[in-house]
């Protein structure tokens, strides 16, 4: 047993909050402070063991003794709340970031990662000895800094997994070929680290690489027995490879939930040491299922703790409130890290924004919020939490246009944030009027201020002959045509989502986009998987063209090389962007008016929620 105060562990999640020196910053202290108040243990983001092995320019390091002082300061914060701390050390091998100057690339192979990257050197004995020493030095440094555990990364397509994987390891010496040969070097690293430490050691593995050429759960069951024999204290089971199966690595909403739990359960049957379950555990229901169905002893929470730092406290009834759900969208967390801004969160406006927590106002006022989409609901909730009296107007259905967001294939999890907001409104007893607000409703004798969260409406271009067209109607099954030719004008987020839905019913889809990039603004994993699907289904994508004229079933488009004709079109979808909707412009009889969400600037859910929370903190 790991002797934690409870069964919950925060999984390692890349933050990108360092300043380029690999040292701890105030952002790290704040982030982990908020998340260590109830949890059993915190695993820090992956710590680089050499500045030439970084995945992010802003990653935390444990490559030198000069990192110890900052790490001690961070551990004081974590330990101060009663949580234990885990140092997750990892050699990326061929996955080290090729965009970072000075990075180098070693592996079991001399072949690059499937989705790009640098060509690695196949490791020789001297390199292996160097890597073993690097692990030992980092582990000793972790113990010296005051960590309670060290976790070695041997999954997710990183260096140890590059030796374990038959689809990657193409060596012909004693470190390649058979299963026994492929596990040899990872076990050499493990033995050296185990002998160097007096604190417990955890190993993280992928239970399956989720690709035909990779290793599978039967291999990992055998490997887990070796790990147990070498004295590991727990085995942390995830899935996938950052190289060959990124959606599994990131536990994206496009892959089925629960597969990692099954893999962990299969491995658990073969060993006596504790097995840590991980992978989209983001609700009380998930926790109960894992305990009851799989008898899970330890549960690792990653993005769930980003979305709601109080997840564990709320589950244990040590903190009030509903659990704010992670949507598994990767938009704010992965997207924020990849953009260089650092980890953020779509649903939690306090992650990496510097915004304050809710404080009660000294003087309560009365506000109307017009529009019950994400921005409107967040505004109403936050205003109510601050002590204001709030009336929320919604003419159709709470959730607004975000009710369209979870209709495309594999995006069902997005509905959870709408359900959460509805439950919050009810719990806080916010008055919700299901009607369209009128000028008479919003006069100054009734309210001190009006928040316009009225969203946006489609921006339809002036195309000659455009009369009958659709927007998002085809996202609903009852409106979805079958085996027809459909032209989608606009290859942004909405256009691509509609196209993805259309090809499921064997429609022949043609997408025309005026820019030189398709799916602009789409989250990177969703974009890759959607494009792959559309290509497999035979959709035609035409970029750098505009639709100039519609004449019945014939469509004229124009690009740099002149005009083309698309014939035989049965239906047209127009998805050429949105424009803010302001229903009461210029009305001076109203109290002060504030705008949030798409009514302020057309954008994404993350921006809408942040703007709403920020406004509520200032009113």
Question: Which tags fit this structure?
Answer:
619 residues; eight-stranded parallel β-barrel; five-stranded parallel sheet; 17% strand
What report would you give on this structure?
β19 and β20 (554-559) form a beta hairpin. With 619 residues, the protein is an alpha/beta fold. The protein is globular and about 75 Å long. Helices cover 30% and strands 17% of the residues. The chain has 18 helices and 24 strands. α3 (125-145) runs parallel beside α6 and α14 (374-385) packs parallel to α18 (605-618). The protein has an eight-stranded parallel barrel, surrounded by four helices.
Write down the overall geometry: globular
Low-pLDDT ranges: none
What is the β-strand count? 24
Distance between the terminal alpha carbons, to the nearest Å? 50 Å
Helix fraction? 25-40%
- Assess the beta-strand content as a share of residues: 15-25%
The biggest beta sheet is recorded as: 8 strands, parallel, barrel
Helix count, DSSP H or I runs of 4 or more residues: 18
Radius of gyration: 26 Å
What's the pLDDT, averaged over the residues?
96
Which structural class should the secondary elements be placed in? alpha/beta
Q: Going across the biggest sheet, name each strand in turn.
A: 1-2-3-6-7-8-9-10
């Amino acid at each position: 047993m790991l002797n934690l105060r409870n069964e919950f562990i925060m999984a390692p999640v890349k933050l990108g909050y360092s300043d380029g020196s690999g040292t701890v910053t105030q952002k790290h202290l704040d982030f982990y402070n908020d998340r260590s108040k109830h949890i059993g243990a915190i695993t820090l983001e992956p710590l680089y063991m050499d500045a030439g092995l970084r995945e992010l320019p802003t990653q935390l390091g444990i490559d030198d003794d000069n990192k110890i002082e900052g790490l001690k300061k961070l551990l004081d914060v974590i330990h101060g709340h009663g949580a234990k701390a885990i140092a997750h050390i990892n050699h990326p091998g061929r996955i080290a970031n090729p965009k970072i100057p000075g990075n180098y690339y070693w592996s079991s192979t001399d072949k690059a990662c499937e989705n790009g990257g640098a060509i690695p050197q196949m490791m020789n004995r001297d390199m292996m000895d160097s890597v073993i020493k690097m692990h030992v030095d980092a582990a000793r440094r972790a113990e010296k800094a005051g960590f309670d555990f060290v976790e070695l990364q041997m999954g997710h397509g990183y260096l140890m997994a590059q030796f374990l994987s038959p689809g990657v390891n193409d060596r012909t010496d004693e470190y390649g070929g058979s299963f026994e040969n492929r596990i040899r070097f990872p076990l050499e690293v493990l033995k050296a680290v185990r002998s160097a430490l007096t604190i417990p050691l955890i190993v993280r593995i992928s239970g399956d690489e989720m690709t035909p050429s990779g290793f599978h759960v039967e291999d990992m069951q055998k490997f887990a027995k070796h790990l147990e024999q070498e004295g590991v204290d727990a085995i942390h089971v995830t899935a996938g490879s950052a190289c060959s199966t990124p959606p599994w690595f990131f536990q994206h909403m496009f892959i089925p939930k629960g597969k990692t739990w099954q893999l962990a359960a299969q491995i658990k049957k073969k060993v006596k040491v504790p097995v840590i379950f991980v992978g989209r555990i983001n609700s009380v229901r998930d926790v109960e299922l894992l305990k009851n169905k799989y008898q899970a002893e330890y549960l690792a929470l990653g993005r769930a703790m980003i979305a709601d730092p109080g997840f564990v406290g709320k589950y244990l009834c040590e903190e009030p409130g509903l659990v704010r759900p992670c949507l598994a969208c990767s938009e704010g967390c992965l997207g924020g890290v990849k953009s260089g801004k650092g980890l953020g969160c779509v649903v939690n406006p306090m992650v990496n924004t510097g915004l304050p927590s809710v404080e009660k106002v000294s003087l309560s006022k009365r506000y109307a919020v017009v529009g019950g989409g994400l921005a409107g609901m967040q505004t109403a909730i936050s205003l109510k939490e601050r002590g204001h009296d709030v009336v929320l107007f919604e003419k159709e259905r709470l959730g607004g246009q975000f009710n369209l967001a979870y209709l495309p294939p594999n995006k069902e999890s997005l509905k959870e944030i709408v359900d959460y907001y509805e439950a919050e409104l009810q719990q806080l007893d916010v008055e919700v009027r299901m009607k369209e607000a009128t000028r008479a409703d919003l006069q100054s004798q009734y309210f001190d201020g009006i928040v316009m969260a009225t969203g946006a409406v489609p921006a339809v271009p002036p195309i000659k002959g455009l009369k009958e067209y659709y927007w998002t109607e085809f996202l609903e099954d009852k409106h979805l045509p079958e085996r027809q030719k459909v032209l989608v004008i606009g290859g942004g987020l909405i256009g691509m989502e509609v196209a993805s839905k259309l090809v499921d019913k064997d429609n022949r889809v043609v997408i025309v986009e005026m820019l030189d990039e398709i799916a602009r603004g789409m989250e990177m994993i969703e974009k890759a998987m959607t494009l792959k699907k559309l290509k497999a289904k035979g959709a035609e994508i035409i970029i750098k063209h505009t639709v100039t004229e519609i004449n019945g079933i014939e469509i004229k488009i124009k690009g740099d090389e002149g005009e083309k004709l698309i014939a035989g079109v049965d239906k047209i979808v127009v998805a050429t962007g949105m424009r803010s909707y302001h229903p009461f412009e210029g009305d001076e009889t109203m109290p002060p008016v504030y705008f949030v969400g798409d009514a302020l600037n057309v954008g994404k859910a993350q921006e809408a929620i942040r703007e709403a929370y920020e406004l509520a903190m200032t009113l």
